[in-house]
Design a protein that fits this description.
Layout lengths: L4 H19 L8 H14 L3 E6 L3 E7 L10 E7 L26 H18 L5 E7 L7 H7 L2 H4 L4 E8 L7 E3 L2 E4 L1 E10 L3 E2 L9 H18 L7 E10 L5 E2 L2 E10 L2 H22 L2 E8 L4 E3 L1 H15 L4 E3 L9 H7 L2 E7 L18 H15 L3
Parallel strand pairs: 3-4, 3-5, 5-16, 6-15
Antiparallel strand pairs: 1-2, 2-4, 6-16, 7-14, 8-12, 8-13, 9-11, 10-12
Helix pairs in contact: 1-3, 1-10, 2-3, 3-10, 6-7, 8-10
Amino acid sequence: MPIVNRVADLQPDIQAWRRDIHQHPELLYDVHRTAAFVADRLKEFGCDEVATGLGRTGVVGVIKGKKPAGGNIKVIGLRADMDALPIEEETNLAYASKTPGKMHACGHDGHTAMLLGAARYLAETRNFAGDAVVIFQPAEEGGAGAAAMIKDGLMDRFAIDQVFGMHNYPGSPVGSFAIRSGPIMAATDAIDIEIEGQGGHAARPHKCVDSVMVGAQLITALQQIVSRNVDPLDSAVISICEFHAGNARNVIPQTAVLRGTVRTLTAKVRQLIEKRVREVTAGVAQMTGARINLNYERGYPVTSNHAAQTDFATQVAKEIAGESNVREMSPMMGAEDFAYMLEQRPGAFIFCGNGDSAGLHHPAYNFNDEAIVFGTSYWIRLVENALAA
C-alpha cells in the first residue's frame, strides 16, 4: 500500500507547520512556544484529551478509535521530539531560524510536524480499535526528556502497551526506511577529567609534574581500552574531544582538563569500559604523581528495538515504501533518549530517508519536506494495523 492519499492532501499544511517550527527553534526543556503550538493543533483536531506539562514541557494527545478495542494491544504510543540545537544556521532559507545561535539541525521540526499530520488524520478517521497516544517530547538533545516524561507517569497514565519512534536519516533516499532488531543506537556516557600537577618554568620540567604530559599519556592509555580490552567483535568508542591546559608557551601549567564521550552497544561492554577507564586513570595518576579527578557519568542507555515490534514496524514500512525500500541497517554509535521508553514498553525505532542533505547537527542541515508523506503515512498505518479490530 503506498502513501495515504489524504496525507498527500495534507502535505502543504504539514510543511507549513514544519517551517513555522523551524523558524522558532527552542532548546532542551525551554520549548514553550513549540509545545503551545502542538497543543493548540491537537485541540483543533479534536483529540479526546490533550495533556501538557509532562516532563516539564511535553505534550500528549489521546485519540480514541471508533471501534471497540478487542486485541491484546489497546493503546499505542507514537513519539516525536521537539527541541533544537545551539547551532548558528547556515542554510539561507526563506524560513531559516529567526533566533541567533539556535536551529533545528536534527530534524525535530519535521518529526513534530509529521506526527501532528498523523494526529490530524487519525482524529478525522478514527479507523482503529483502541487509543492512539501521540507524544511530543522536549529535551532529546542531551536533556533526557523521555526519562522526565516517564517519571511524570507517561506510560501508566495513558496505559501505553507499545511505543514507537522515528528519526530522519540524511544520505538515505526519500521514501526509504531503515531499521534493525536489537541494539540500533548506542549508550552514551560522559568523561570529565581534572588533572592537577605541579606547574613551573618550561626550562625546568624536572621540578614540575607536567599536566599536559599527564593528559597526553592518559588519552593514549584510554584509547587502548577499545583496541586491547574490548572484544574485536563488539563495538565501542572512546573519544576525548576537549583538552584544556596552559596559556603561555614557556609555562608548564598546573592543571589540565579533559572531556570526552564513551559509546557502547551492550550493557556488558559499557560496564567493562567504565571499569577500565577508572583503572587506567588511577594508574596514570600513580605513575606520574599527578592528582587526577575522574567524573564518569552515565547518559542515555542503548536504544534496543524489541524483536516482534521491529518485525511489525518493518512490515508497515514496506506497505508504505515497498519492500525494496526498507532495509536492515547496522547499529549507529549515536545516542537517542527514546531508549528510556523502550526500557519501559516494547516497541521499535525506525529511520526515514531524508535524501542527499547535510548531516545531522550540521549548520547547513534541513529536514526534507518531501519525506513528510512517507513518515506521516507510516505513523497512520502503524496505528491502524496495530489497533485493527
